[in-house]
Design goal:
Blueprint: H1 10-22, H2 25-28, H3 41-52, H4 56-59, E1 78-82, H5 87-92, H6 99-110, E2 127-131, H7 151-168, E3 172-176, H8 178-185, H9 190-193, E4 198-200, E5 203-208, H10 221-241
Parallel strand pairs: 1-2, 1-3, 3-5
Antiparallel strand pairs: 4-5
Helix pairs in contact: 3-7
Length: about 240
């Protein structure tokens, strides 16, 4: 399973303590309020720059051509972690840019979050979007949907994700799809976890099924009810955090 650095890690607390005394004014301005948890926007920008030039999977022969998806660093209280970029995300260069993003945005909006910036689809201003791997794996061999990233690809991307979680420092982590759910919660069944909330190191984890049209899990009436319970869990956390 994936793990993240403890929120009490001395490195991150030291970084916050140094902010007002050692950061240049032009950098300190991009940090949000110091009270409570705070995204390390400066550190996140440096991480994004490293992700953008990563060619590890390509050099390992796992991808024909690496095309990591990145985003401009900003503060976020919620982090969404999916499986891997899809073909629309690959083309547009924006996480969850395809139908899966529309479905996910609907969950957030039913939970009371306002829509964010408008690109091709509505994006969520409150959420930092990410995934287990950063490049589109390509179509599946059967031609039905996308190829799932391999264990090796996930392992090569794992240090990026662990550092990203520490830098974003979200209060809520939304796990989209079985691969992301199991990466953090272990070998669980979606039937057993969707609709429940979990806590890890002071963060709330809320699992959801894969939001693409390829997934049929959410079509069963009993599973639709579980998704609605997950939306209710997300809504309750939004109210608790006053997002």
């Amino acid at each position: 399973m994936l793990h993240w650095r403890s929120r009490s890690s001395g490195r991150w607390l030291e970084k916050r303590a140094m902010l007002t005394t050692t950061e240049p004014a032009e950098l300190s301005e991009v940090w949000s309020g110091i009270t409570g948890r705070t995204t390390d926007v400066v550190g996140l920008g440096a991480l994004i720059a490293r992700i953008a030039v990563c060619r590890a999977c390509q050099e390992a022969g796992l991808l024909g051509e690496a095309h990591p998806i990145t985003a401009a660093p900003r503060d976020a209280r919620v982090m969404v972690i999916g499986q891997a970029p899809g073909p629309v995300t690959h083309r547009e260069g924006i996480h969850f840019a395809g139908p899966a993003g529309r479905t996910m945005a609907g969950w957030f909006q039913r939970a009371g979050f306002p829509p964010g910036e408008a690109h091709k689809w509505p994006y969520l201003a409150a959420a930092w979007l990410s995934s287990l791997t950063r490049c589109f794996p390509g179509p599946s061999g059967s031609g039905n949907g996308d190829r799932a990233p391999s264990t090796r690809e996930i392992a090569l991307c794992r240090p990026f994700l662990e550092e990203e979680i520490a830098l974003v420092d979200p209060d809520i982590v939304i796990l989209i799809g079985a691969m992301a759910v199991r990466a953090f919660l272990g070998r669980v069944k979606l039937d057993d976890v969707i609709g429940n909330r979990f806590e890890r190191d002071g963060r709330v984890l809320i699992p959801f099924p894969h939001s693409s049209g390829v997934s049929r899990w959410g079509n069963r009436p009993e599973n639709k009810a579980k998704i609605e319970r997950a939306v209710e869990q997300l809504s309750a956390e939004r109210e608790r955090l006053r997002l």
